[in-house]
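Predict fold of 1-deoxy-D-xylulose-5-phosphate synthase; 619 aa.
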Amino acid sequence: MNLYDIKSPADIKDMSIDELNELAAQIRRFLIESISHTGGHLASNLGVVELTIALDYVFNTPCDKVFFDVGHQSYTHKILTGRASQFPTLRQYNGLSGFQKRSESIHDVWEAGHSSTSLSAALGMAVARDLNHDDYAVVPVIGDGSMGSGMAFEALNEIGYEKRKMVIVFNDNNMSISRNVGAMTYNFARLRASDGYNNFKDSLKENLNRNEFGRGIYRSLKNMKNSIKENIVDTGIFGQFNLEYMGPVDGHNIHDLIQVLNVAKKYDGPVVVHVITKKGKGYLPCENDHEGKWHGVGPFNPDTGKPLHDVPAGWVPWGRLFSDTVCDLADSDDRIVAITPAMIQGSFLQRFFARHPDRAFDCGIAEEHAATFAAGLAISGKRPYLAIYSSFLQRAYDQINHDICRMDLPVVIGIDHAGLVGSDGETHHGIYDISILKSLPHLIYAQGKDAPESRALIRLAFGQNHPFAIRYPKGVVKEEKQENVPPIAIGSWTSFSATDHDKAWVLTYGTSVDVIFDKLRVNQIPATVVNCRFFNPMDEDMLQKIADSHLPVLVYETDMKAGGLGESIIAWFVDHDLDVHIEQMGIGDVYVPQGAETRLRHDLGIDLNAFLDRLNKLL
Ligand SMILES: Cc1ncc(C[n+]2csc(CCOP(=O)(O)OP(=O)(O)O)c2C)c(N)n1
Ligand SMILES: CC(=O)[C@@H](O)[C@H](O)COP(=O)(O)O
Ligand SMILES: [Mg+2]
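Predicted 3D structure, encoded as tokens:
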């Protein structure tokens, strides 16, 4: 079958198992070829090809609510719901989303991007169904990495209590982005090694062999509980949560998957179907990867597995700059401990983990726990470094407030992927952290404009005794080794005059500082650029000097305007009764879609041209 001809799962319902297997092989070839051009979450998607075929074969979306946790592994579902032709646009501006998207298809019934929301959402859907006296299946598909998160546990706790009908498909590949961690993995490993599904299959076969097909399934269902009790010693953590358990099932055997899903579908309560898959199945470089290099990839050569775009010589990923600097500091300060919530690869912490294994902690997808764990270390005399993506930090807001800042504990937080992130889109843009963290007392909060200043800020952070957050963007930075950055006083800003007759102030931060200053200097546009490298505390002497100059001010931000630096500056002028003409640029009240950063900035009215227009009007 031509993948481009598939319009909905109805098109595969009459296929034989052999045909479905051929379809799986075709989809795998398609995914490897297509993602080699666009980039995307290759390994996770290769792992669930058969599982998704079986799900879309057994259930009837959109009536049945089949959906994927995180959603990064929903590519086969996209193909089976008529979207194969859109893959060349994957994760691009106006293109196919890398996650499920309701605006893309009626077959996408839930959206995410952040992990471990599926079980709570499923319970909501199941309760609503029952209150409406409706009848449809609710089928969340959740991976072992996402299952380890607190939110998933909170949901399981209520699901096992509410006992609403749903099929929880537990996709266990023993991998999060890198190797999965946590005590739960022992529990899953025990289940993986058990013979539960084979016992169940035998009992099903027995009933079917007695030529009681219609009643066979019913009898198996009825007996499932007993069969589990008699034959399966271990229903794992799921049994403890009062849930029925079926598994483990070979997640690459379409026949078995269809059989078990058909049975689970009829069960009148919550049942977990434990499916064992191989992350990266069918493409050796992915199958052999245990570090997570193939979890999310850029364009690559499918024959060699080599990336098409390397980091340019003389540049370094921002994450590596931060993690390596902390790693070097940890060489001579054994109080320094590194923590990551499941992002060793993304945050470039491999070197720290190799060099200081006893002081490096991957705590799984558990941002809340990671922050309070850091607080516990800090209150006990350690100097924790918490590396966390800006958008995932949102999960840990209360812990950063209640446990770190309130007790004024010296945790250093490296806020990765701050700002627009491009292809992951609206769930992942790191544009809210300034708005949510700026108001926290005790927190020293900064962003360096370049590599040397960022390194100096990291050293400063570890040399003082308060919570200290430093944000940095996704992407790469020029690897300037220059270390003669003058000592940085906490809360100090710096300024650069473009001409000797400047007529305005431009207040900005991060990489915008040099970009804007170069533009003004080259074009002799008379404005002074202020590097507002601390959001908290702000440089009050500089603010007073700006007010005293009676020149207009333009605050330029590439993060959310609401709650951003500009609003704090305006409030400071108002509080000090200073009459300053001040204007603000930043991201307005919208969710920002996926796309190249330059394109997004253009649409948001915050690109360099928009900035120059606005500044020229001020001059
Ligand atoms: C709250 C949150 N933290 C971190 C991430 C980054 N992340 C995306 S997928 C993933 C691993 C998920 O593992 P699993 O659920 O087992 O899925 P798999 O990729 O193995 O299929 C992580 C850590 C995220 N999306 N959301
Ligand atoms: C799905 C998810 O949340 C992660 O895989 C994320 O896409 C990682 O982003 P980077 O590839 O930018 O590290
Ligand atoms: Mg997994």
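The first strand starts at residue 65 and ends at 68.
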